[in-house]
Amino acid sequence: MLVDWQGYKPGPSSPVTEGFQALRSTAGPDGTAPFLLGFGSVARVNPYQALLYRSFERHGFAVTPVFDVTRLRELLHLKPMASGVGLHLHWTSSVIGGARNEREAVVKSNGFLGRIDRFKESGGKLVWTAHNIYPHDSRFVDVDLALQQGIAERADAVHVMANATASALGDHLRLDGRKVIVAPHPSYEGAYENYLSRSESRQSLGLDADELVFVLFGALKAYKGLKELADGFDELCRRRTPFRFRLLIAGAADEAPIVQDFVKWAVAHPLVMIDTKTVPQHRVQNFLNAADAGLLGYSRSLNSGAALLYQTFGLPVLATDTPVLREALDPASTRYFDPHSGASSYATNLQELASVSKNFETAALQTSLKEIAPELVSTRFAKALAAKLGVNTLG
């Protein structure tokens, strides 16, 4: 028979179809039934979830995507086949994202929390990862914050990526320390093709060998400090320096006015190259291997996959100074700054990062990345989560 790819084709019977296949494909420890763990929202482009769950099968879990998290109760149909059923909730923006006004957002939020209550009353377990202070595109911040608080209070386990997360969230979210599991964002080791040389990557983009190239990689959003970057780079270009600079931008642009203004600036700038489409996985290496340093001047940030992606490709990083990022990133390869300190300060930080990148040695960075290798992070998280949820495991 012909191969029929499974797992990422949501249909009318989702998430039961995917969950059934996950149970069929996973062997529990000692021949026992595995614990069925659904996860959503599902990241289709970012391989973060695949890396996070990489070792879960060996620790008693069958992991399955849940494309519509409002249908979480349907996972319970598979409870007789499993040792238990749970939902690992990641980003919450889909819950109220389509609301037309605040009142509708509240209704959607309350309805979702009600579904969680019924799910738990029927024996389901809930895990939540605190990815952001609140959803990046939130239109009703207070409603989103109340939703997150309700989820945290109902969760059996709350996953954070740094010890500093609780203090970084401040008054936005109260966490019960007894529920918290700290598991860092894994590196992207092995997740992307990485065989092109620096010269081959630059050739594919039309860059010269002696240009000092900064890269901003990932979806273009207003919270990523785009105007500050534009002002800072313009100031840098006005200075007399020993370097030839180039700014490389790659990532899908949303429709926010500040993002569209940034795109127009980038397209018109002779020293900026921009691709506003989602970058295919096999093309990621072209952009990152062509660069000398990665930029992360976010105006609001908790965790950052882009920072780990830069460092996985051996790039030094200029990052917003936050406690979480200081804990998460390799100190020897990261320069921290305040992106709101003005164009002159931004330009100075870019110039100093350029000097660092010209003589950057990756040995210390590679040692640091070993501590957050996907296999290691996934194994530690699986063990900690199994203990919280009472999952039978041999690990």
Topology overview:
Blueprint: H1 16-25, E1 35-40, H2 48-52, E2 61-65, E3 84-89, H3 93-96, H4 102-121, E4 125-129, H5 141-154, E5 157-160, H6 165-169, E6 180-182, H7 198-205, E7 211-217, H8 226-238, E8 244-250, H9 257-268, E9 272-275, H10 284-289, E10 293-296, H11 305-312, E11 317-320, H12 323-328, E12 334-337, H13 343-358, H14 363-370, H15 374-389
Helix pairs in contact: 4-5, 8-13
Overview of the structural elements:
- There is one protein chain.
- With 395 residues, the chain is of the alpha/beta class.
- The protein folds into two domains: 16-186 and 373-389, Glycogen Phosphorylase B (Rossmann fold); 198-370, Rossmann fold.
- Helices cover 38% and strands 15% of the residues.
- It is built from 15 helices and twelve strands.
- The strands form two sheets. Strands 2-1-3-4-5-6 form a six-stranded parallel beta sheet, sandwiched between helices. A six-stranded parallel beta sheet has the order 9-8-7-10-11-12, sandwiched between helices.
- Helix 11 (305-312) links the parallel strand 10 (293-296) and strand 11.
- The radius of gyration is 22 Å and the shape is globular.
- The two termini are 37 Å apart.
- The mean pLDDT is 93.
